[in-house]
Amino acid sequence: QVQVVESGGGLVQPGASLRLSCAASGRTFSANYAMGWFRQAPGKEREFVASISGTGDSTAIADSVKGRFTISRDNAKNTVYLQMNSLKPEDTAVYYCAARLSFYYAPRDNYDYWGQGTQVTVSS
């Protein structure tokens, strides 16, 4: 099975930046699996944030974070990143990293493997 572990969350003020990391296991994992970032705030359903294809050539970004968040990956390190800039209180949530088979595309749903989540809190 595929294992993913997120890190990099924390408490920051509005307007600050955070960089989340997701380490993925498996020697042949990187080139075959798309990676996605999702978030869930208290009392709300989980929502899509960003995703990137196995090759890294395709990405998808949610409208709510477009222009502020950027997803990237380093297949040599089996690591995916979510750079979050200009953070708002509305961004407060548990952020989850997920994986699914997809070499060329960056799907927005139907992910199979999930990390434990990392808390991001934006507050003054």
SSE order and pairing:
Blueprint: E1 4-7, E2 10-12, E3 18-24, E4 33-40, E5 47-52, E6 59-61, E7 69-74, E8 79-84, E9 93-101, E10 113-114, E11 118-122
Parallel strand pairs: 2-11
Antiparallel strand pairs: 1-3, 3-8, 4-5, 4-9, 5-6, 7-8, 9-10, 9-11
Description:
The protein has 124 residues and is mainly beta. Helices cover 0% and strands 48% of the residues. The protein has no helices and 11 strands. The chain has strands spanning 4-7, 10-12, 18-24, 33-40, 47-52, 59-61, 69-74, 79-84, 93-101, 113-114, 118-122. Strand 5 (47-52) and strand 6 form a beta hairpin. The mean pLDDT is 93.
**Biggest β-sheet: count, sense, barrel?**
7 strands, mixed
Tell me, briefly, the overall form: globular
The chain-level structural class is: mainly beta
- Taking pLDDT < 50 over at least 5 consecutive residues as the criterion, the unreliable ranges are none
Mean pLDDT score:
93
DSSP helical segment count: 0
Helix content: under 10%
Our measurement of the CA-to-CA distance between the termini, rounded to an integer number of angstroms, reads 40 Å
Which range does the strand content fall in? over 45%
Radius of gyration: 13 Å
| Strand segment tally | 11
Task: Give the helices and strands as they follow along the chain.
Answer: EEEEEEEEEEE
